[in-house]
Amino acid sequence: MSNVHLIDHPLILHKLTRIRDRETGPKDFRALMDEVSLLMAYEVTRDMPLEEVEVETPICRTKAYTISGKKVGIVPILRAGLGMVNGILRLIPTAKVGHIGVYRDPETLQPVEYYCKLPGDVQERELIVIDPMLATGGSAAAAISFLKERGCTAIKLMCLLAAPEGIQRVQETHPDVGIFTAAVDERLNSHGYIIPGLGDAGDRLFGTK
Fold first, then answer.
1. Which of 48, 138, 157, 186 is 20 to 30 A distant from 123 in Cα terms?
2. What was the pLDDT predicted at 1?
3. So which residues are the catalytic ones?
4. Contacts of 26 by beta carbon, 8 Å cutoff, 6+ apart
5. CATH number of the domain that 21 lies in?
6. Phi then psi for 42, rounded to 5 degrees?
């Protein structure tokens, strides 16, 4: 799993435990997901290129560093991915946000795009596709394919939890895309839920059933 990056910082694991807890209500669930997303974004952006510049401090001129290269775009997969957007924007406030909606056709079982709204310069950005759960991997793989069809080439996938089945699906479909996750769980159950997981992230975020 060379393109899988496990972000197991103690603060993230502590907050992830509270996210998993069935007693955590929507208000705290949203706050915790926001916090974990911010912390994970530090690692997802660790390889951003730098360029050397000169600045004038109150004492003297000195050499320092600034971000160079492509700007960042955030692409949540609707609807649960929305819960991760604000945390990343707090770290990268200049990032632009696109949205992709995907559902599974009940007859063909294939992912279908029902909504896609992206920044006009999306091809020029380093994109972080976000979804709390990488379960079967169908939605994530499809969303990445939709982005590639629109000319995007620099793509990473960030999720709170991943199942081995989802990791395998994305790796087979998009071996060039790095997967960043806080935990790799045991497996999927017969209904496609991650075990032990955290339940339905969208329902827990928005208080729906």
1. 138
2. 58
3. 104, 108, 200, 203
4. 204, 205, 206, 207
5. 3.40.50.2020
6. -60, -45
Token pair of 43, please?
């690692």
Please state, in angstroms and as integers, the Cα–Cα distance from residue 81 to each residue in 97, 181, 202, following that order. 11, 14, 8
Domain count, the chain: 1
Asked whether 97 and 44 are in contact (CB, 8 A), the reply is no
> 104 pLDDT band (50/70/90 cuts)?
confident
Pairing of β 111-117 and β 99-104: antiparallel
pLDDT digits (tens, 9 = 90+) for 131-155: 999 999 999 999 999 999 999 999 9
3-state secondary structure of 11: helix
Cα-based distances in Å from 65 to 41, 49, 51, 52, 188: 19, 10, 6, 5, 44
Cα angle 208, 40, 188; round to 5: 55
Largest CA distance in the chain: 69
**3-class state of residue 139 by DSSP:** helix
Contact 75, 100 (CB under 8 A): yes
Backbone angles phi, psi at 128, to 5 degrees: -115, 105
Instruction: Please check the confidence at residue 191 and state whether its pLDDT lies above 90.
Output: no
Rounded CA-CA distance 2/22 in Å is 32
pLDDT tens for residues 27-69? 999 999 999 999 999 999 999 999 999 999 999 999 999 998 7
